[in-house]
Every structure is written in structure tokens, then in C-alpha cells.
Amino acid sequence: MAEKTEKKYVITNHRSGKVLASCGGSAVQMTANGGETQVWCAVPAEGTSVQLVHKVSGLALTVPGEAENGTALVLAEAQGNASQLWKLTTTVKGCRRITHVASGKVIDIKDISDADGAPAQLWEFVKGDNQNWVLTEVEKEKKAPAKCAAKTAKPAAKEKAKAEVKAEAKSEVKAEVKAEAKPAAKTTKAAAKTTKTAKKTK
């Protein structure tokens, strides 16, 4: 199946349940941690093929040298040459088989291992579960934080409005107090003058 637009995936080995990752320039399987270091971009290339580009490093999944059984896969500068072209084929289990276009061999995990750090390698297609991969698209998950941010923004706006109302209320109270204080001050002065006048009369 052709990938018409670039998509981002977490690529999980169906048998081990671990994901394709980068470690020291090599392609290995690791326990999923939800990080971007385990995300791969399927970049459209010639015909129905794609390059599998590591999102963080920008390096492409590559077959170094001869495409023999057991060749460990590495990451190298993306050039779109034959060593970096792959075909994603849907299997009967709903998984994908990742086939190296030039050699016809597929990606699996060395020695059918479950261990973290076990290398991803090239091997002839033998219909093994070790050669089945689940590609989970991650692009849609990025929209969720934006919704959360929007929800957070509304309470913030409400708090701001409340603060403004309180500030206005305080200003009105101060104005009323000052207004009441001025007549009281005038009355006090008038009373003082009356007292002085009364003393002079005596």
C-alpha cells in the first residue's frame, strides 16, 4: 500500500511487543516509553516505497553494505537511495510487513529476541510472527494537548474577570468612604468655629 503523504508511526514488533528505536546509530527494539525517540516518519519515495526516517535524528533506516540474512540495520543520512527504500505491506493479521525493496528481504528481530536492545535485522521472508509489525499512527494524538490548553484558558479568563470585578468593587468602596469623610471633616471645622465664637461672646 502506498503512503501518499508523510505519516508518523510507532513501529511495534508483533511477537515481542517492543518498538523499533534508535540506539547509537543502530536500529534496535526497546520497551515503549511514549517518547519521540521511538517515532518514525514514513516519507513517500519512488513508486509505492517509503523511507523510514527517525523523527528526532532525521536519519533514515538503512541496509549497510550487502543485503544478506542477518545484516543489522543502521541509521544514516537520508538520501533516498536503494539501501533506504522500504515497502509496507498489510498482512492477514492486520499487521505490516516491512520489505527492503532492493533485496526483497524483510525486517525482523535477531534470534527472535524479547530483550531490549536486540538488533533489528534483514532476513528472508519466512512468514514468522517476528516479521510482523504494528504501525500505530501518532499524528492524531498531538491534537489532544491543544484541547486541554483551550479548556485551561477558559478558567484563567474567568479568574481574570473575577479579579477585575473585585478591583472595581474596592474602588467604589474607597470612593464612598472618601465622599462620606469630606462632609464629616467640614462639620468638624464648623463646630470648631462655633465654639470659638461662643467663647468670644462670653
UniProtKB/TrEMBL annotation:
<feature type="region of interest" description="Disordered">
    <location>
        <begin position="171"/>
        <end position="202"/>
    </location>
</feature>
<dbReference type="InterPro" id="IPR000772">
    <property type="entry name" value="Ricin_B_lectin"/>
</dbReference>
<feature type="domain" description="Ricin B lectin">
    <location>
        <begin position="6"/>
        <end position="136"/>
    </location>
</feature>
<protein>
    <submittedName>
        <fullName>RICIN domain-containing protein</fullName>
    </submittedName>
</protein>
<feature type="compositionally biased region" description="Low complexity">
    <location>
        <begin position="184"/>
        <end position="195"/>
    </location>
</feature>
<feature type="compositionally biased region" description="Basic and acidic residues">
    <location>
        <begin position="171"/>
        <end position="183"/>
    </location>
</feature>
<dbReference type="InterPro" id="IPR035992">
    <property type="entry name" value="Ricin_B-like_lectins"/>
</dbReference>
<dbReference type="Pfam" id="PF00652">
    <property type="entry name" value="Ricin_B_lectin"/>
</dbReference>
